[in-house]
Specification:
The complex is a heterodimer of chains A (300) and B (167).
Chain A (H helix, E strand, L loop, with lengths): L2 H11 L30 H23 L8 H30 L10 H6 L19 H22 L5 H29 L3 H14 L11 H4 L12 H14 L25 H16 L6
Chain B lengths: L2 H12 L11 H4 L2 E7 L2 E6 L8 H15 L5 E5 L12 H9 L2 E2 L32 E5 L7 E6 L5 E5 L3
Parallel strand pairs in B: 2-3, 4-7
Antiparallel strand pairs in B: 1-2, 5-6, 6-7
Amino acid sequence: MTEDEFAAYQSLSEETVDHRWAFGTGFTDPLEGIDTSVPDGVDAQALATYCLMLGDDALVYSHRLQQWMTRMPELEEETALANIALDLLGQARMLLARGGRAEGALLADGNGPGEDELAYFRDEHEFRNVRLVEALDADFAELVGRLLVFSAWRLALFARLAASADPVLAAIAAKGGNELAYHRDYAAQWVIRLGDGTPPSHGKMQAALNAVWPLVDELFEGDAVTAALPGVAADPAGLRGEVGAVLDAVFDAATLDRPGAAPMARVAGKSGRDGVHTEAFGYLLAELQSVARAHPGATW
Amino acid sequence: MSEADLDAARAIAGAVPDPELPVVTVADLGILRDVAAEDGRLVVTITPTYSGCPALREIAHDLRYRLGRAGFADVTVRTALAPAWSSDWITAEGRRKLRAAGLAPPQPAPKGPVPLTFGAPGRREPVPCPRCGSRDTTQTAAFSATACKALFRCEACREPFEYVKEI
């Protein structure tokens, strides 16, 4: 081992609180040293909630993708999905931290909740993610179908947010957009391979899209939080054309039909962005939060 | 803090190896953005390659450790998110080291809106094999052991290799 390599190991073996990133080993701040003051004229509460929406989408979906680990058909797909899930987890950490800081701007002591508090100690109705990310994929076709829709939509959204009037959100979106381009590409290639493959793979891919489709419409619905953030947030309705064109191009190459399934109904006028979720979400959240809640404040 | 101290700090910080790719340093990769003195303390600014990059914390830790060992007691490590890191920032020296270690260095990163390509986004040229130089290579997986690399196979020498992706 060279002196350089040794120094890296040596530094990690020292007693510190911040050198490992996992629950109970001391969290670090993903926005360390970044100016997170809320720009003048921006509604801090709306900005905090908006960051939670986008952060929750990534956190919940990352967890679902992680549940595929050890179940992927080939090692190459396993590493691909692990990397995609990790990218999304990184986006979630920064967005939750940004949301917490924006909320802190409204508090007397200036300290909003940290990323771990937001991820592990909110209840189901406090999560703002879209319902598309909640279901356990029935098979590999459903995995790549959902990933295609999610990454095409999020890439279009982040491309707009890169010009957000909140510089922190703009930076997170610019960075995340570069990553999402790879995610979309990965999913598109699999949808095409399965759709334009054998009759059984075509049938399964079409069935998967049909199953995912009722939750697609929600991605383009406006909400009061977004409306309260002109210049900061991006209007979801404005993404419909661009995302639709991308999906149609993939479906065309894959010889698949754009599904016609009706959107899943809202519950008393509410959906994911309002904290109203599908049944699957409660089970997912219970798993995601179980260790942190069983051992609150634990360190090891 | 004197200019000589600052130069020494820059040299120490720049020599920190990347935990994932120890053949290159954080300066080679363009992760190290700035080393400056602020009110008598040393402020080192780094940027993540990917949003979820777990190596960033290891790098920050290694920076504090090495600088501390060299007598810089008060070191602050800051994260800069904007502009987003690009593989274009890998220096010529970094590219040479990557190639020498059997890793193909990245091509220029795509700029602007990302078109749907049904292939590696924005990659225009074949990736030459870092071993034999052949351009007859095939991507076998878009994501390798880390998000920043793809897996390739050389059809000429038949060896697999990793490619540091353009982003």
